[in-house]
Amino acid sequence: MSEPKKNRREFLTKVGAVGAASLVAGSSGAMADLPTKSKGAEKLAINGGTPVRKQRLSFRAYGPQFYDDVERRELLDVLEARAPFRWRGPNSKVLQFEKAYAEHLGVKYALGVTSGTTALFTAMAALEIGPGDEVIVPAWCWYADYDTVVLSGALPVFAEVDDSFNLDPADFEAKITPRTKAVIAVHLQGCPADMDPIMEIARKHNIRVLEDFAQCVGGKYKGKYVGTIGDIGINSFQLSKTITSGEGGAVVTNDKELFERAIRFHDVGTIRSPYREQLKGGLLAAFASCNFRMSEFTGAVLKGQLQKLETICGRLRRNTRKVIEGIADLPGLKLRKSPDREGDIGVTVYLDLGNRKRRDQFLRALRAEGISAHGPAGSVILPLAKRIEDKVTVHPDWPSFKTPQGKAIQYGAACCPRTIDIIGRHGGVIMDPNFTDKELDDIIRAIRKVYPVIANA
Ligand SMILES: Cc1ncc(COP(=O)(O)O)c(C=O)c1O
């Protein structure tokens, strides 16, 4: 079993999330393997019945729907000041955004960078991850979670996900070796990872916790914003994230030393004002570093977007709650697991259809009813990617795969059978903060119409 070659996230990035369902194979036409009737059931649109909706209902990228005069004013400030470089004193939009973001999340330090990928890279440097270290990564997440471990010279070790699509704490513990330096707890598609057991296991084994909340900005776990629970957190502001500047990222932490290393790494080894004064010149020596500085244009948009974050999350949560309430009485219904439904942003209403065949039938039938339906999206089953399975690097002597462990490790389907099963049997609807009550009712109607027929097949 393997995922489609071109994953949906790549597609969403290109088309701005609209119309993603059209990419999924077999999205129209009656299915020979789909039941044509079920006792007392309405005839499904895929079998020639009347669809719930004539026009396909689909989500759109969230943040840009909320762009208005707030972002416009912030951007104009930068243009009119002719000051697009972040180190420009207290008027810096990036600096103002960093302060507001840290305060909003309830964390001591936030650093703006150019992307989620460079934020991950920066966090790896802050945690001093390098050759000989192992980093545990969920088998279902984004390329950057694997790539930045490899590009740091360390060895990625995959752990299975559970029915929340996030890191399975038990398998995380099973994958620990004396060389494990860190784990990446990734909060995927709006759902928080189960941080209590992850933190407990990590502390027991003296492992650093890097939270990747790129897909869960604004999500909470037991009252705390995700990203602020582990040693260091990173997120992305790319188009498909809750708030967006097209590209961008952030590193957050409560740890002064990690922050100093992050600042230095992202800015050619230096600490500039006002952080130089705040950190009293810094405690650490400079080291080989990068330039991942955020531009003032990005900072300006994000300063505006941050003011919309709770509105976007609040609407998503409300919409998701309404749909879940509307289908809750369906016999045998099993939803995607969430360790904290209140804190979950509510990006998806995903059902467990039991197996991949039934999941695919469910998605095709929902699409025929005029509802854009998806399997788990925005990530990849990393061990199945050819370049990962083959351990391809920019240089044949790359340190990650030169150690005995690096030579011995095998990726591919055999290292994550449970993840493949879980990702293959879930499907449903990706929510939009601006769905109307009528549109939410259509989603409920379509699921209520289709699910019993598929589930009873
Ligand atoms: C979980 C996760 N981590 C990291 C990233 C990388 O972010 P960026 O695309 O901003 O580099 C993404 C991007 O989609 C992501 O989904």
Secondary-structure blueprint:
Layout: H1 8-15, H2 69-81, H3 93-105, E1 109-113, H4 116-126, E2 134-138, E3 140-141, H5 143-151, E4 155-159, H6 169-174, E5 180-186, H7 195-204, E6 208-212, E7 220-221, E8 224-225, E9 232-236, E10 249-253, H8 256-266, H9 275-278, H10 296-306, H11 309-327, E11 348-352, H12 356-368, E12 380-381, H13 386-389, H14 404-408, H15 417-425, E13 426-430, H16 437-455
Parallel strand pairs: 2-4, 2-5, 5-6, 6-9
Antiparallel strand pairs: 1-10, 3-12, 7-8, 9-10, 11-13
This protein binds pyridoxal-5'-phosphate.
Pyridoxal-5'-phosphate is lined by residues 115-117, 141-142, 144-145, 186, 212, 214-215, 236, 238, 249, 378.
Describe the structure concisely for a colleague.
By secondary structure, the chain is α/β, with parallel strands linked by helices. It folds into two domains: 8-63 and 309-380 and 416-455, Aspartate Aminotransferase, domain 1; 66-307, Type I PLP-dependent aspartate aminotransferase-like (Major domain) (Aspartate Aminotransferase, domain 2, 3-Layer(aba) Sandwich).
Q: Helix amount, in percent?
A: 25-40%
CATH class of the largest domain: Alpha Beta
Order of helices and strands: HHHEHEEHEHEHEEEEEHHHHEHEHHHEH
Percent of sequence in beta strands: 5-15%
Give the cofactors and ligands.
Answer: pyridoxal-5'-phosphate
Please tell me what the overall shape is.
globular
Measured distance between first and last alpha carbons: 22 Å
CATH architecture of the largest domain: 3-Layer(aba) Sandwich
Low-confidence stretches: 1-32
CATH superfamily of the largest domain: Type I PLP-dependent aspartate aminotransferase-like (Major domain)
The total count of strands amounts to 13
| Alpha-carbon Rg, integer | 23 Å
Order of strands across the main sheet: 1-10-9-6-5-2-4
**Number of helices, where a helix is a run of at least 4 consecutive DSSP H or I residues:** 16
Characterize the biggest β-sheet. Answer: 7 strands, mixed
Tally of distinct domains? 2
Which structural class matches the secondary elements? alpha/beta
Rounded mean pLDDT is 92
Classify the fold: give the CATH topology of the largest domain.
Aspartate Aminotransferase, domain 2
